[in-house]
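Run log, item B.
One chain of 227 residues. Sequence copied directly from the ordering sheet:
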Amino acid sequence: MRTILAMERVSKTYTLGKLSVPVLHNIDLAVNEGEFAAIMGPSGSGKSTLMNLIGCLDRPTDGKIIIGDMDTSILPDMELSRIRGKKIGFVFQTFNLISRLTALKNVELPMIYQDISGAQRVKRASELLGMLGLEDRIDHKPAELSGGQRQRVAIARALVNEPEILLADEPTGNLDSKTGQEIMQIFNNLHNEGRTILMVTHDQTLAQNCDRIIRLKDGRIEDGKYC
């Protein structure tokens, strides 16, 4: 099975004035294509920093991060931005939709930066929204949608550029339990289609849906066993 993500002795230290704050220490991690992994750990364990590094939103202080066959830790900013837009899809707890844009326009947005034509953008965004049961909501703005519908729009936006890795940060955290289960079923379906998914969650029940639980403690991987 192809390794789609490899982290080799990755560390991250933030510098605040004269103060150095180490957050991650010598992380070694390999994720295979098609794997669904949960990332768990107490607050302050380094989960968000790990996700930011994988998602090319930040750079490691030391070590390598290889996505596919590219060492993203040494890429120039412009190339790193391109990789982030093409190879990584993000789903956030707070949805992060643009309030003035319709569902359709929100989903189209990542394609604009990939130089995809307007007609292709509309076609692809409409297809994804339809697949997620929102064909009658494409012209609605986020304030006109329920929490579950907003998260479905966010998932469609994350998928629109056919990313190699889908990163989900507490994707059910702002939803009631029934809606959270529906969103989790979407992730299960995506996994069954062969998507590679990394999901931060505090919910042990949700984590049990995954192939593997990666547990962080004090900036180190404590356990990464398969379920």
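Observations after the first pass:
- The domain at 35-59+74-223 is CATH 3.40.50.300 (Rossmann fold).
- The CA atoms of residues 97 and 106 lie 7 Å apart.
Flagged for discussion on Thursday.
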